Amino acid sequence: MPSNIFNAADFTFETLTAVINDQYKPSVLSNARLFKEQGIASTKVLIEQIDGLITLIQSSPRGAPGHPHRTASRKAFEFEAVHLKTSGAVLADSVQNVREFGGMGPTTATQVRDRKLSEMGRNLESTNEWLRMGALKGLILDADGATTLLDLYAFFGISQQVLNIDLTSSSLNVPNRVTEAKRRSEAELGDAKPTSWLAYSSASFLDALRANASIAQTLAGWNAATAMRDDVRGDFQVSKVQFEELRDAVGLTWVEPDTAYLVPLGVDDLFQSHWAPADYNETVNTIGLPLYAKSEPMPMGRGYELEAQSNPIHICRNPRAVIKLVNTTTP
């Protein structure tokens, strides 16, 4: 009797979860280490606001001492994890008559498994990146780009800081305007001091910024043989703020046209990603991981059904510290 090409040990929950997390590749916001990542044993996070300062309440085991009380004006906000799940399958026929990519031998079941998990993991990470961007902007939208999952400004009862900049004005001093935006952010941060600044920009905002008279003069002072012919979309500074174009992808607008978001970097716990545990028997009340994967044998031994999931809470604990810059003639 021919041997079974599917080894059950290759499709256990532990193996699949390890594989999909090993294949995890951070996206732009995650790779910038903008969000502090932490696994949690609950599906909820409680945020406390004391005297206008939003801080975290550390979770504690049942019966253990609670979070120390402070006599002050305080509010508490509870955030619940978003449940993201995708499914696939490794069919027995998927390895039938299929040559190994880049080789001459037949494709193995584990190779098909790894390819499926990689695709599913990329889709989950792209979704997490979309949610991170929503947290940065203060408005977290679902994957349809229209349904609101969480409006942080409404949730905290605050308003967004918007600074209009007319980049078409030949008399505008753009560096001074950018410095004003930094001061507004610093006023919200209090004693916290950013180590640097980054502005995620739409293509139209960055083009208008580069074309502004005050910026064009600065560019003209650079070495014309190099700087003026280089693509500066990802390496462009004004008043020590790095402006970076964030390209639209997967049919979604990451940054609205003629808009940029000024972000202070190096501020502890300003942006946070919490990973809640999956809803499996093996994971209840355990510390959450970014990604999970699990399988079940298909009827009649025709392969394995696959499922991958992520349960994130992406938040900005002080959304007013992120300044929305808009290229407009409106004062």
The low-confidence runs, each spanning 5 or more residues with pLDDT under 50, are none
Structural class: alpha+beta
CATH class of the largest domain: Alpha Beta
Count of individual beta strands = 17
Cross-sheet strand order for the largest sheet: 8-17-12-9-11-10
Query: How much helix is in the residues?
Result: 10-25%
Order of helices and strands: HHEEEEEHEEHEHEHHEEEEEEEE
Write the layout of secondary structure elements.
Layout: H1 13-22, H2 28-31, E1 36-39, E2 44-50, E3 53-56, E4 74-80, E5 84-91, H3 109-137, E6 139-141, E7 148-151, H4 152-156, E8 162-165, H5 174-189, E9 196-201, H6 203-211, H7 213-220, E10 236-238, E11 241-245, E12 259-265, E13 271-275, E14 292-297, E15 303-310, E16 312-316, E17 323-327
Parallel strand pairs: 1-13, 8-17, 9-11
Antiparallel strand pairs: 2-3, 2-4, 5-15, 6-7, 9-12, 10-11, 12-17, 13-16, 14-15
Structure description:
The mean pLDDT is 84. This protein has 331 residues and is an alpha+beta fold. The protein has helices at 13-22, 28-31, 109-137, 152-156, 174-189, 203-211, 213-220; strands at 36-39, 44-50, 53-56, 74-80, 84-91, 139-141, 148-151, 162-165, 196-201, 236-238, 241-245, 259-265, 271-275, 292-297, 303-310, 312-316, 323-327. It folds into two domains: 8-148 and 274-311, putative capsid protein of prophage fold (Super Roll), CATH 3.15.30; 159-269 and 319-327, capsid protein of prophage domain (capsid protein of prophage fold, 2-Layer Sandwich). The longest helix is centred in the middle third of the chain and has 29 residues, at 109-137. Helix 1 (13-22) packs across helix 3. The N and C termini lie far apart (80 Å).
